[in-house]
UniProtKB/TrEMBL annotation:
Keywords: Oxidoreductase. This is FAD/NAD(P)-binding oxidoreductase. GO terms for molecular function: oxidoreductase activity. It comes from the Bacteria. Pfam families: FCSD_central, Pyr_redox_2. Its EC number is 1.-.-.-. It is an enzyme of class 1 (oxidoreductase). Gene3D superfamilies: FAD/NAD(P)-binding domain. Residues 193-307 form the Sulfide dehydrogenase [flavocytochrome c] flavoprotein chain central domain. Residues 65-177 form the FAD/NAD(P)-binding domain.
């Protein structure tokens, strides 16, 4: 009961700070710097290192053991709340290939020079020191869903009672793109984000940028549109006379249509040219050319090519990605247990799972809490809560200093056995403002603190 209240309370708190959206931006590097300063201390806190071959049972043989694969928005949150809500009785090991997480949220502002990648970094030290999560910095090469084991790149094998997979996304290969650095996606914050920022900075005034939007479902539905708006504002100020060609594989703007269409046609009408149904067939990186399925050809000085997406490579190779045309993992949203036969002790949360909810960091945080609550109940011989609710808030940068917002709430529908949108809990801002931009920074800080601190 208390956990349920905490879940609802956490949602309400995040909502109360500012409703909405899924977008990046924030010139407040100080906010993130504060967060980053709470990081690390891995070796002292971990207790499980690169040479580990088994984990979990040293202190209490009967302790339930959970391995979380992927320490992003979903994985960090589930690890924290498994410890918190079990009263520290569940042994939790969190594995990520990187010792620090870089937030995708706000990362489009690295492209405009408003933030640094370093300001978006989060360590796992607080999860270890405050909650007793054991962190392992290693890559997971394979999992065995039946025997619930995880094989690490270092050769170690971890064994648990349950596995939570939260590996995020992988990208489809783009025909012709032999050198991805020529047309970076920058859709997984990191080296490609830096590269795209450099390419934009080096572009001459009066140049052309092309930004491609993949077919749904993809990570952060408003994200490409907000990036387009942000870049349009930056181009107008920093590269006068430049154009931004938005090539959308979808038939129309997929979310927050009112605000984005107003921005594309009005505020950014002199910079943005929007083309729906623009499916990329193949590319010629040497010529910086894109060939579309309708036979047309487009070239640009800088190409931000965001490919179609699927669950992180690990789940695909394990054979669990059987939903959404083989792209994502089917789950029971009462517990996020995988519904592929034989994999019921593997839970999949965040962008890798196939649900009716958007692929977003805020929803990843919410799915993680539902999953943690369910696992705590299951390992004590109970059943998952039958009435979970989740919410998603997303802000979108419409200019370098103004934002809009979008929010959605979901409730379990026992007939459809899916999370159904709650009309009264959804909405979007009427336009954009500097106040919403400030709210976005508050929301971001609260979300990241809830996941990593
Ligand atoms: C530009 C941009 C802006 C965005 N803005 C917003 C926003 O405003 N609001 C919002 O809610 N969402 C936003 N999002 C979406 C949000 O970032 C994702 O939905 C969220 O990060 C998904 O969380 P996740 O845990 O599933 O994946 P991730 O956060 O990507 O975490 C996955 C983790 O798994 C690790 N991993 C993967 N495979 C392995 C392996 N084999 N072994 C070990 N570790 C592994 C990775 O290193 C990574 O740390 C945005 C995304 C982008 C790209």
């Amino acid at each position: 009961m208390q956990r349920r209240h905490l879940l609802l309370g956490g949602s309400a708190a995040l909502l109360a700070t500012t409703l909405p959206g899924c977008g990046g931006g924030g010139a407040d590097a100080g906010t993130a710097d504060t967060m980053a300063s709470t990081s690390d201390g891995l070796s002292s806190a971990a207790g499980v290192g690169r040479t580990t071959t088994t984990t979990g049972t040293t202190a209490t043989a009967a302790k339930a053991r959970v391995i979380v694969v992927g320490g992003g928005m979903a994985g960090a949150t589930v690890a924290k709340y498994l410890r918190l809500w079990s009263g520290n009785t569940i042994d939790v090991t969190l594995v990520d290939r990187n010792a620090r997480y870089t937030s995708n949220i706000m990362s489009s502002m690295v492209l405009t020079g408003q933030r640094t990648l370093a300001s978006l970094g989060y360590g796992y030290g607080t999860l270890a020191s405050q909650y007793g999560v054991k962190f392992v910095a290693d890559e997971v090469l394979a999992i065995d869903p039946v025997n619930t084991t995880v094989t690490l790149r270092n050769g170690g094998v971890l064994k648990a009672d349950r596995i939570v997979l939260a590996p995020g996304i992988a990208f489809d290969a783009v025909p012709g793109l032999s050198d991805p650095t020529r047309m970076p996606h920058a859709w997984q914050a990191g080296a490609q984000t830096t590269l795209l920022a450099q390419q934009l900075a080096a572009m001459p005034a009066g140049g052309t940028v092309a930004l491609t939007i993949p077919a749904t479902p993809y990570r952060c539905p408003p994200g490409p549109y907000e990036r387009a708006c942000l870049l349009a504002d930056w181009l107008r100020q920093r590269k006068p006379g430049s154009k931004l060609l938005v090539l959308d594989a979808n038939a129309d703007i997929v979310t927050e249509r009112d605000n984005f269409s107003r921005a594309f046609l009005g505020l950014h009408g002199q910079v943005i040219e929007y083309r729906p149904n623009a499916v990329i067939d193949h590319v010629d990186p040497a010529a910086m050319a894109l060939y579309l399925a309708d036979g047309s050809r487009v070239s640009a000085n800088v190409v931000n090519l965001i490919p179609r997406q699927r669950a992180g490579a690990l789940v695909a190779t394990t054979g669990l990605a059987t939903a959404t045309g083989g792209r994502f993992v089917p789950v029971d949203v009462l517990s996020y247990a995988c519904t592929v036969p034989g994999a019921q002790n593997v839970h999949v949360i965040g962008d890798a799972s196939a649900t009716t909810q958007p692929k977003a960091g805020h929803i990843a945080n919410q799915e993680a809490k539902v999953c943690a609550d369910a696992i705590v109940r299951l390992v004590s011989g109970g059943l998952p809560d039958t009435g979970p609710v989740t919410n998603s808030a997303c802000f979108s940068t419409i200019t370098m200093s103004q934002a809009s917002w979008l929010t959605a709430g979901f409730q379990y529908d026992p007939v459809a056995r899916a999370m159904a949108p709650v009309a009264a809990a959804g909405g979007a801002s009427d336009g954009w403002s500097g106040d919403h931009f400030e709210d976005m920074l508050t929301w971001f800080k609260a979300l990241m603190a809830d996941s990593f601190a």
